[in-house]
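FAQ

Q: What does a record look like?
A: Structure on top, sequence underneath. For example:
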């Protein structure tokens, strides 16, 4: 008997809940441990961000606040793309950091009279980061450019996912007319699965720095069976 939309919603939401629990346990297992370096810290805190987004999403979804839950999907996709990108191309971390540095300077420049002092502090932090990065990764080619997310998606082999799912959920974030009028609600069956694959990417990422993830294979298998 074919599965209905209600069946898919229930199965995919159960998968997401189990994956988020696995991610939460993996993150907790790393508590108190000293990270080996910059990549490990990035993977940990990025996975924490996905965990928070998924936690909020589940609370909203289970309480019937479907429209509100969609606003948490795009941030999770963005972080997941970055995590997979640095797995495939570790030196992309430097470009991600450079992009954040430039944005911090722009933001600091909009502050009141103390903007020059704020910018100087940010530039000092960037100089310290560059020194630490070159010491940790002497063989990496460091390029000071601000990568587009689609470029990171290309590193990750996720260009098609960027062009389909990321662009879809950007419409909810940016309040496009089609999103606000409900015209895109027919894609709601993708919501849970999209969050689930982001959480699975985070589990894979923290498992690479020593977190336990004994249920990762079964979670991936369940995701595959959802189509």
């Amino acid at each position: 008997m074919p599965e209905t939309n209600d069946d898919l919603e229930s199965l995919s939401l159960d998968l997401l809940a189990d994956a988020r629990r696995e991610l939460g346990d993996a993150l907790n297992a790393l508590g108190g441990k000293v990270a080996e370096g910059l990549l490990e810290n990035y993977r940990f805190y990025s996975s924490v961000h996905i965990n928070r987004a998924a936690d909020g999403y589940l609370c909203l979804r289970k309480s019937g606040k479907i429209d509100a839950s969609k606003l948490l999907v795009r941030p999770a996709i963005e972080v997941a793309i970055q995590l997979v990108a640095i797995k495939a191309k570790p030196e992309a971390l430097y470009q991600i950091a450079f992009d954040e540095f430039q944005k911090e300077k722009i933001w600091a420049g909009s502050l009141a009279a103390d903007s020059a002092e704020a910018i100087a502090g940010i530039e000092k932090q960037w100089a310290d980061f560059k020194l630490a990065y070159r010491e940790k990764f002497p063989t990496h080619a460091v390029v000071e450019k601000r990568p587009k997310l689609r470029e990171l998606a290309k590193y990750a082999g996720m260009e098609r996912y960027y062009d389909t799912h990321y662009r879809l959920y950007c419409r909810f974030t940016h309040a496009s007319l089609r999103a606000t009028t409900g015209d895109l609600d027919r894609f709601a069956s993708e919501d849970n699965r999209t969050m689930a694959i982001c959480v699975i990417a985070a589990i894979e990422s923290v498992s690479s720095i020593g977190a336990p993830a004994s249920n990762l294979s079964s979670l991936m298998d369940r995701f595959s069976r959802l189509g």
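Q: Is there anything notable about this one?
A: The mean pLDDT is 92.
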